Description:
By secondary structure, the chain is α+β, with helices and mostly antiparallel strands. It has one domain (3-117): Glutaredoxin, CATH 3.40.30. It has three helices and five strands; from the N terminus they run βααβββαβ.
Amino acid sequence: MNTWITICDTCKREGWAESGADLPDGEVLADLIETAAKGVPNLRTRRVSCLMGCTHGCNVTVQSNGKLNYTLGNFEPDQDSAKGIVDWATLHSQSETGQVPYKTWPVAVKGHFITRHPPLPDTE
C-alpha cells in the first residue's frame, strides 16, 4: 500500500510578495519533495492547489488508506524540509497504523504537525 505526500503548490509564506520570488514557496517545496521521493518504495507524491492552511504556509499531507493521516506545515521551502518530510513519510509507510514513534522522527518535521486524522471506517 502506498503512502501519499500531497503538497500544496500554491502556498506562499509570509513576506513572499516582497521577496520578488517567481514561484510560490509551495511549488519550490513540491519540486524538492518530488526529487527527494523519487524511487522511494511505497511512496508517491502529488500536487494540489490549496490545502487551505494559509496561516501555516508550505503545507503537506501524509496519507494512506487504513492509517492515521497527518497535515504538516510551516516549512521553509528548502532541501532539509523536503528530506525530513520524505523520511517521515517513509516511516509512515512502514508503520501498520501510520503512527510513527516520536524518537524516530527526523528533526526537520518536529514542531510542524498541524492535524492528525483517524482513518475512515471501512463500513458504515
